[in-house]
Structures are given as structure tokens and as C-alpha cells.
Amino acid sequence: MVAEPVSAWILNRLLDHAASLLGLTLLELKQYLQDGDHIIHIAEHQGIAAEQFRELLCHNISLTLKEEYSSGKITQWQYDEYMLALEQQLEVVLVL
User: Which superkingdom, per the lineage (predicted)?
Assistant: First the structure.
């Protein structure tokens, strides 16, 4: 099995969690993005302020990473790498 690159791993988690927070399936979110919509605009349309959405998204993914580390699914090194990548990828996702 080939490990998924850190940035791709985080990006996939960000999109999954964003869709969940927005009450959408991942497929629906991807369709909105392909149609030219932006995640922040979708959130704001649903009454979630941009900064609040960012904080919720970051918090949810941080919890997921902590759970995966605690259960032994990822190592401390992976946890640290994913947390670093989270901040970088979060900025990318929020302008999608």
C-alpha cells in the first residue's frame, strides 16, 4: 500500500468535514465547486460566518487527528505533519 501524501490526505479530510458542516454530501460539495461556487459562500449562505466556519472546520479535523493518534492509526510524527499541513491546506480550501 502506498501512503497518501500529507497534503492530499489533509485536503481530502478538509473537503469531507466541510461537506459535513454544510449539510452536504462530498459529491454535492464537489459539484458546487465545479459549478464555480466557493465553500465560504456556501457557508455564509447557510448562515455560518467565514471565521466561524474556519474555526469549526479546524476544530473538527483536529479532533479527528487526535482520535487517530490516540488509537494508533497515525504516529506522533504523522500527527505533527498533518497539523502543519492543516493550516496550509485550510487556506487553500477556503478560497475554493
Answer: Bacteria
Helix residue spans in 1-96 (DSSP H): 6-21, 26-34, 39-45, 50-70, 76-94
Cα gap 23→43, rounded to integer Å:
10
Q: Is pTM, for the whole model, over 0.85?
A: no
Q: Within 13 Å of residue 26, how many CA atoms lie on the same side as its CB?
A: 7
Under a CB-based contact definition with an 8 Å cutoff, are residues 39 and 94 in contact? yes
What percentage of the chain's residues is helix, strand, coil (to nearest 5)? 75, 0, 25
Which amino acid appears at position 13 of this protein? R
Give residue-wise pLDDT tens across range 32-89. 999 999 999 999 999 999 999 999 999 999 999 999 999 999 999 999 999 998 888 8
